[in-house]
Amino acid sequence: MTYNGFKYPKLLLFLCTLVIAYYLFKERDVVILHNFLSSLGYVGFLLAGILYAYGFTAAIATAVLLSISGYGNLFLGAVVSGLGALFGDLIIFYLMHYSLADEVKKISKARIVRFIGKGEKVLFGSYKNYALASFAGFLIASPFPTEAGVALMATVKSMSLRKFVFVAYILHTVGIFVILSIGRSLA
Predict the structure, then answer these.
(1) Per-residue pLDDT averaged across 134-138, rounded?
(2) Cα–Cα separations (whole angstroms), residue 64 to 38, 52, 58, 94, 172
(3) DSSP classification of residue 95
(4) How far is CA 161 from CA 32, 73, 116, in A?
(5) What is the DSSP letter of 145?
């Protein structure tokens, strides 16, 4: 199925965000951009954190975080950005865990999903849940599409909202701290 002649409109949109992020980071020496981002203070970190949680804006958020890493306390910037990312994750978590639960259940019965599940069981054995949680954690901490990691976490039956909030916040804060540290070292 195509949308306005494009077979993969979401992929095209994602590639556009990568191009925008590239130009934001490439032009980070532009005084106007630096002045604007730094004038937002920690609100800029919070907004970048919210954008960091979504696949289509993660690249832009990473570029913004790299650009503003020199403004303010590095640790506090990561804590505030982590809160923003957690806010974005909670929206995804609620959608996946509560609103889309019936669709996730339907998808889990699809032939390809069952085939992949059997392969995972053979490959990981009794450690399948640990491998799944580790992969989900990597996706959440990194600038890769967080939605996939949150969706994986949301499918874990024992994952309460309290556990999810704790795990997602720590993972985002650590991932963003690494990005801010890289940005500060490049400045």
Answers:
(1) 82
(2) 10, 10, 10, 27, 15
(3) I
(4) 41, 30, 27
(5) -
